[in-house]
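Quick illustration, no need to memorize.
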Amino acid sequence: MSASKLIGPPEIHHPRPPLAVATTTIGGGEASNTTTSPPMGFTENKSLTYLSSGNPCLDFFFHIVPKTPSEDLTERLLLSWKHNPLTTLKLICNLRGVRGTGKSDKENFYSAALWLHKHHPKTLACNLDIFADFGYFKDLPEILFRIFESPDVRTIAKSEWDSKKKGKGGSRGLCFLGKKRVHGAKSRKGHKKKVEKKRSLRARIPRDQRVEANMEKVKEEREKARDLREKTEVAQAEKAFERYSRDTDYRFLHDQISNLFAERLKSGIQYLNPGETKKISLAAKWCPTIESSYDKSILICENIARRLFSREDYIEYQEIEEAHYAYRVRDRLRKEVLVPLHKVLELPEVHMSAKLWETIPYNRVASVAMKNYKEIFLRHDNQRFKEYLDNVKCGKATIAAGALLPHEIIASSKDGDGGQVAELQWARMVDDLKKKGTLRNCIAVCDVSGNMSGTPMEVFVALGLLISELSEEPWKGKVITFR
């Protein structure tokens, strides 16, 4: 019998345009072949330039940067995928890559992941472990949550939160001040009468009765809020169950994410023995906890728990009813898996939530968490935290910096700690890069013109400083700027 013929994925048999002559037009939505060079256009400064490299994958890599409009990302993603699916999948991973593996562009990665789910759902679901390696495990429930709710659910929530803060703060105060200016003495006189009337009414009612009435009112409001919250949670759970039951692609992704968490948690429990704890993955840290927002919205904890404690493997669950089984395995996930793994991982968040500031292991705090929490550490555990920073300076302790970009460290130097943490994280980043090599015959040239204001300016300055520190003499510590 003759050996079967290897044919590979179907995409490799589709005709592709030659790289040098492929023309990509953003706006028309199609890639066309032509014998002419890529079209020419102008930069913002009216300089002549090519509008495309001729390679849709290269265009995607070059043009997709933070805050790129989602329409542009989707269009370039489609063209790149048509050109080379495997390379495009690698570029999507590169979008998310942290710790030197990519652009660390979380929002564009989420948009690309949602596009994958819509057009190639199995490609997304079967590469979850790779995506988690490039980013972190929390990306997986976040992708599922955005698919379940909507792609812009976080943007909407942020704008609503900002509006609420604005309503409580300055704008309302300014409005009130404006009224005082307009009405003047008349407004103050009316306000005074209202206050006096209120005081006279209160004086007629004994204090004990007023306190009791107020407590009853607070109790009623709490009960109403609790009832509303319970109704909202039930409606959310019904919606999540309906989507899981109806949408096969969503269910497949839900199951794959649950399987991956269950596998990593199961292996983590096996490594709880002394000497093996370093093998425990961070899946335990980022696994949604019982009654968390992810659990309430997408019912992820039950799915993970069912895979860890299946009826087939645990005979004590084989005869009990379904609702009781779901409750017991969820509770077992929390008590027997997440709690012991969190304890071994020494997560700073566990100590912070319990207000055990004096026991926080600062050498275990991740780079982003250190940047975000440093002022809180100074406020609640000032002496120990300063001692830790002094130990880092002396080389007796280490500080994490791997997940931060250079310009993020530079920007954090203006925070309330006086830039101490930023200085140490910058030094750690430079030391880590120097171990990989230095730059010879190199000098950084930075554009600090007005066109580069904002984040672009911060990026150029940070990269210029970094290159100058990595350069060998005579260019070490030197930067050329131009305007």
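The longest strand covers residues 444-447.
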